[in-house]
Specification:
By secondary structure, the protein is an alpha/beta fold. A hairpin with a 2-residue loop joins strand 5 and strand 6. The longest helix has 18 residues. Helix 1 runs antiparallel to helix 5. The chain is built from nine helices and six strands, in the order H-H-E-E-H-H-E-H-E-H-H-E-E-H-H. The structure holds uracil.
Length: 190
Amino acid sequence: MENELLALENECKNCYKCPLGKGRTNLVFGTGNENARIMFVGEGPGEQEDLQGLPFVGKSGRLLDLYLSLLDLDRNKNVYIANMVKCRPPHNRDPKPEETEVCLGYLRRQVKLIKPQIIVCLGRIAAQRLISPDFRVTRQHGEFFKKGEIYMMGTFHPAALLRDEAKKKDALADFQCLRRKIEELSINIY
Ligand code: URA
């Protein structure tokens, strides 16, 4: 499986199917435990991510790591983190629908190889594409939806929490919902 994931990553490194490919310094494929039962999906790489080739390594990433740590989750141990698009959109703009569509094929294959039981969508872009087009983060954050064999939940993007501290209380509650789902599914994170 590791080899298959590596092969997929190499395929992505040669991808120029959308204009974001030309602009990247590094592909941001994903990071974490490839056998993780829990996966997080953000929007797209920012400047730091593009420079380092890793997701969520800037300010948002530090906040995400803090929230993960509250549940004994850790990108180096028991979760996998990826994005809707694997190349940085210029000036940190939202990925365009056509860019997301092209990259979704890669994400789906990545999910099939990792086989998470839970996917947490970080922010509107991921939640609307992976859960439902009319998903409203403000109204539906913390709710679980079963899609096939996978339990999916949408919560606030960490950048939104940095912009608006008042949302942090709700985000913490979402992580408690996640904790309960992990327990309910008897997922062993240790
Ligand atoms: N924001 C995202 O959505 N993904 C990252 O990897 C970094 C910031």
